[in-house]
Amino acid sequence: MKIGIDIDGVLTDISRFIVDYGQKFCIENGINFKICEDEYDEVKALGITDEQNEQFWNNYLEYYATEYPVRDFAVEIISKLKKENEIYIITARNEEGLPASSYGTMKTLVKNWLEKNKIEYDELVFTNGSKLPYCLERNIDVMIDDSPYNVLDISSKIPVLCFHNPYNRNLNGKNIKRVYSWYDVLDKINKMKEDKKKRGKTV
Predict the structure, then answer these.
(1) Cα–Cα distance for residue pair 61/153, rounded to 1 Å
(2) pLDDT in tens, the chain (203 residues)
(3) How many Cβ atoms from other residues are within 10 Å of residue 116's Cβ?
(4) What is the pTM of this model?
(5) By the 8 A CB rule, do 18 and 174 touch?
């Protein structure tokens, strides 16, 4: 199988990061905030302005991109999966929010973070706009993502494992299966492969 994997919200717990560091940022800077974990957009999730959000990421994006930890078990599960599958890291990560001194370095930061955390992959793909064309171009069999937009968009053509986060808890539909951990990812992918074999035998 060809497996596509998102970074933010899948390899990392970005929802937890935004709550923890968003509160730190707001309290230290005397900014009123209101946590709403059901919101995907961090402006709405923190109840702050676009300008305050830009300042937040200027303060913390470089740390997040270089030091924030990978989710539990992601490394070992991806290593298991790669033995029999192709792994594509497909991310919409961009330069927005980086301080001027670090602008132009995001691709390098991502590559270094993946290497630092020993995350194995066959190709790293940086997307612009919809991820669906990138998935179709590479014949991805299943995509693991958390963004409500991406999950709905990609699932129109390709099966998606929706990595559970507060902001996507009510998301469902055809071609969408919810996963709650990286061991759940492994279990769901193994079952997909078993189902595929069974269907192949009956044809």
Answers:
(1) 26
(2) 999 999 999 999 999 999 999 999 999 999 999 999 999 999 999 999 999 999 999 999 989 999 999 999 999 999 999 999 999 999 998 756 555 656 568 899 999 999 999 999 999 999 989 999 999 999 999 999 999 999 999 999 999 999 999 999 999 999 999 999 999 999 999 999 998 888 775 43
(3) 11
(4) 0.93
(5) no
